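Moderator note: this is an archived Q&A kept for reference. The question asked for a predicted structure of one protein chain; the sequence and the answer are reproduced below.
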Amino acid sequence: MEEKFIPDIVIGRLPIYLRALQGMLSENRRVTSSQELGERLGISAAQIRKDLSQFGEFGKQGTGYSIEFLADQIGKILKVDRVWDMAVVGAGDIGSAIARYQGFANRGLQVAMVFDNDPEKIGSQIGSFVIEDIKDLKQKIQESGILIAMIATPSLAAQEVAEELVTAGIKAILNYAPINLSVNEHVHVQYIDPVIHLQRMTYYL
């Protein structure tokens, strides 16, 4: 059977819903509604119901959603009901911050390796990680079976790094370098460039 197409913008809202639900769980809440979720997130209740309906029925009219059940189901949809190892390439300011970041814990993700090409950094430690030589990237990633990588290199190196990651078997890349990557269509790339978001904000000032 052909897999149902879900718009990427819908997928992009699911982690936001999951974060809100996990916050409610930490408050010892049991039940919520699309109205309450919408008020917390600034998203219309109708949009939330429409998004969730793409994946099935998770609540009953008049009784709302079981927070624990809905969070569990969204976790399964996003495949974060398991822990995904990630490789970080680039041990500069951004890469080092990512390697030390504790916010991945209990959210289905964890940094497993950090690579760099600077001889002064290779072999040194960031948090609990020893920085690996980028020359060993392909072998190490293939041996570990890692499928997710973050690129935190200068823009001039990012395309070459991306190609090496894809050759190593990486299927998803989060790119912090301020450049658009050209990769195989089967590799999913997400971009994070704070400057672009800031420039978008300055329009409103």
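Archived answer notes: The radius of gyration is 19 Å.
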